[in-house]
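Recap slide: Sensory box/GGDEF family protein, sequence and predicted structure.
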Amino acid sequence: MRKPVAVPDFATLRRIAAKPQSIAFLPAIFLAAYWFGGEAALIVSSVIFPAAVYAFYADRARPHQRDGQTGLPLRPAFITTLDGVLETSVANGRTTACLMIEIENLGAISASYGVETTHTLQKIAAKRIVETVREHDIVAKLAESRFAVALAPVHRADLETLIQLSSRIQAALAEPYSINASKIYGSASIGFCTPTRAPAQTAAAYIDAAEVALLDAIHNGSGSIRAYSSDLTGRQSAQTCDPDELGAALENGHIVPWFQPQVSTDTGEVTGMEALARWEHPERGVILPATFLPVLEELGLLERLGEVIRFHALSALRDWDQGDVKIGSISVNFTATELANPKLVEKLTWELDRFDLSPDRLEIEILENVIAATDDDIIPRNIRALKAIGCRIDLDDYGTGHASIANIRRFSVDRIKIDRSYVARCDRDREQQNMLTAILTMAEQLNLETLAEGVETLGEHAMLAQLGCGYVQGFSVSRPLPEANVRAWLAQHHTKIASAPTIGRHAG
């Protein structure tokens, strides 16, 4: 009979783990544990040793390798720790996985609430992630809005397990953030790499793969979760546009408007469409503007993009008129550069005449921060001139900037578009309802129309109607549609509203 032998304690095993060469002797260590201490010693050693290795590598993140706001390891320390976890995982037959988490709209939150509030939100988000994962899982901060998680060695890290973990993290981050008497809502997209799909068993490979999956998640819309697969690698190149290819696409009709319906909360009828730029790439599919707008800006082609989108949008509106398809107006975004063009009014007058459209069929969308920041006299002069010829003026993303009531009057605004940050969960959150009520009351007193954007659920839609918001736009109505799909969607929508009760204002 074997004599009972004491199993080395955690501290001893951690000192052994501090020497990377000791991993080569791992089989011998486990065999000795079994030989001298039996199955119990083997089990204890096989559990404690991986944890000791993890603890050693995780603690190697020195203060200068940690984020000043959250205290989490930064990218270099995360890479070192993950490499250590992978090394010991291979040796003991366990595995790991890597997740990338992007906090969405952090820039807009910073613009609305300030840098200090953003820092506080980051700390809270970090704490929530840490509390959601297991005690020994590694959480790091890789960028301003990006966090990473590496699983401490586990027996299994399959697709289903990681989707469930991602969903729990998203749910934790979606809870409201109460900061300085404000309630802020956040959301997150997540990409992850499973061990069976990792390009290589290195930290760099896991991290790169998880970031590719994250980019795909971001591309697919708010709150998405994506797993890495080898076919995604080619899509990553879509995130860095070739300037020559992009310029050619702009001139050859590959960048076109897709149309998102705007509906009345009283009748459900479609009253207009917003034209949103999309790059229909022959190989990479539909590319969203967040990918190509920065490149166009560097090339000085934003004004040209505006011309192209208006041409296709006004052409579509004329074709719908001729086909007896009733669309009241088209909304088009205008940049500060376009609004500062001395010939803008002349150009738009010509474009409208070309398609035989009256000026009131064109909604000029202007970002709130453009109105708040401008000290260029030509911009308000152009906007007033556009209003004078009959165009309508929409103030976009209302509530994210600092546009005063005086500026709203100065720029002759017809309608404010209430930002998604005020719409999210308004059917369940009393504070959101109070904020919306204040905005809608102000708009009513100023004789402004109101449209809520980013309306994603029927509950939000119903609450906005009840509070008195005139129009809504968002996924609860429809995702943006290519021109070829608009007629079919409209026919389906008309059938639906004809057979369903209307969501009316001030219900009950």
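Residues 1-59 form one domain.
The radius of gyration is 28 Å.
(End of recap.)
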